[in-house]
Specification:
Length: 398
């Protein structure tokens, strides 16, 4: 595998963490077919992630974590996804949100400290659950139908959230709700034990992410677990990060594509039908498909890691300017991942459809990436607006 990471030059502690994630990925790979067929949640994978310390790697150092950079987080997420895309995507929301909260200061200090300490000491997991049946993804700007009613000492929240990834294993749930009788939206930290999980997740791909519905019925949230109250469309005061943490999504789908590429390479290099004097890797049209896979992966991964490094080195203001490019990585990577897996299946041929091989699972799993935010139309629109703004600024400076 070509070395986008520059692994030989990495510090010893980073190489050791990559060894840990590769061991985890191998275990996940062995369990993945069973969980995919059953569509159940891989609790044992989550326990392995906790036991390895992985769940606390993006917690700030001052709270007992390792404070990993975005670049290194993406390395590990890509490796895990080579083993099992569902597990990688699920845990990616947890480690990514912790990095996001660390970089933006989006939580009140004491609340963030409490969450981080629970992650470090108890292996607690956190995710944001904001998508709803009527409004869809919050990235489209819909106002939550979930409502929060002000009561003495806090709020009572009622509503339903969909696509709640990692829900069977969560400890903390970040929930958005419209505050009753006010034109404001709040974000609240809810305990998993206070909600009902309705097992609705039965999908074509990514079948083991546990992305069920969460139902809140008059759930009380004390004042100290109110994250923010703000008017729709108004950003709370925090350090902006351009949503760079969402690069965990393309890293996951590229990891799946790498697994498909590796399988196709091995197959092509070793399979020799009795009609040929050599393996099919030497057949021109197969060689071309292998080369196409390499180019698509090289382009997407180079952009992914280049932007991750730029994020890690940038100021908050510079990170905001990178946001259209973060979206571009997601679109480029998820579309490339779909194309790579398709090419891998064409190399392997009819056997790739067999459930005895992993390719048909990879094919189903990568399709999910097309529906993770930001969607392609949003990305193209943002890139166009950024290009037009640069043009206008250039003309104004003449």
């Amino acid at each position: 595998m070509y070395d986008i990471y520059g692994e030989a030059a990495l510090p010893a502690d980073v190489r050791e963490r990559l060894r840990i994630t590769r061991d985890l990925a191998q275990a996940f790979h062995e369990r993945a077919p069973e969980h995919d067929r059953a569509g159940d949640f891989p609790f044992e994978n989550i326990e392995d992630l906790k036991a390895s310390g992985y769940v606390r790697w993006t917690v700030p150092v001052e709270y007992g974590g390792l404070g990993l950079s975005l670049e290194e987080m993406l390395m590990h997420q890509e490796v895990l996804a080579k083993g099992d895309g569902s597990t990688a995507l699920a845990i990616g929301w947890h480690v990514g949100i912790l990095l996001h909260l660390r970089e933006t200061g989006a939580f009140p200090d004491e609340l963030f400290r409490m969450v981080c300490e629970s992650v470090v000491k108890e292996g607690a997991l956190i995710n944001s659950c904001a998508t709803e049946p009527a409004t869809g993804s919050p990235s489209r700007g819909g106002k939550p139908e979930t409502t929060a009613v002000k009561v003495p000492g806090g709020y009572r929240i009622t509503g339903r959230k969909t696509f709640s990834t990692l829900s069977p294993a969560l400890t903390w749930i970040m929930v958005t709700a419209t505050v009753a009788d006010e034109d404001v939206v709040g974000q609240f930290l809810v305990r998993k034990e206070d909600v009902e999980i309705v097992e609705t997740w039965d999908t074509l791909g990514m079948r083991a992410t546990g992305s069920h519905d969460i139902v809140l019925k008059d759930v009380f949230v004390p004042e100290e677990r109110v994250i923010v109250i703000q008017r729709p469309g108004v950003q709370a005061e925090r350090r902006p990060d351009g949503s760079g943490w969402l690069l965990h999504i393309p890293a996951c789908y590229l990891g799946i594509a790498l697994a498909a590429r590796d399988f196709a390479l091995e197959y092509a290099a070793t399979y020799r039908p009795n009609t040929l004097p050599h393996p099919i890797a030497e057949v021109p049209h197969v060689e071309q498909k292998l080369g196409e896979m390499e180019l698509k992966l090289l382009a997407a991964r180079t952009l992914l890691y280049d932007l991750a490094r730029r994020f890690d080195a940038a100021s908050p203001e510079e990170r905001v300017k990178l946001q259209p490019q973060f979206g571009a990585v997601k679109t480029l990577a998820t579309n490339a991942a779909n194309q790579v897996v398709d090419l891998a299946m064409r190399v392997v041929g009819g056997r790739s459809l067999s459930r005895a091989l992993p390719l048909e699972r990879y094919y189903r799993d990568v399709r999910a990436g097309l529906h993770n935010p930001p969607m392609d139309d949003v990305v193209y629109r943002n890139l166009a607006k950024a290009a037009l703004a640069r043009r206008a600024a250039g003309q104004a400076g003449r």
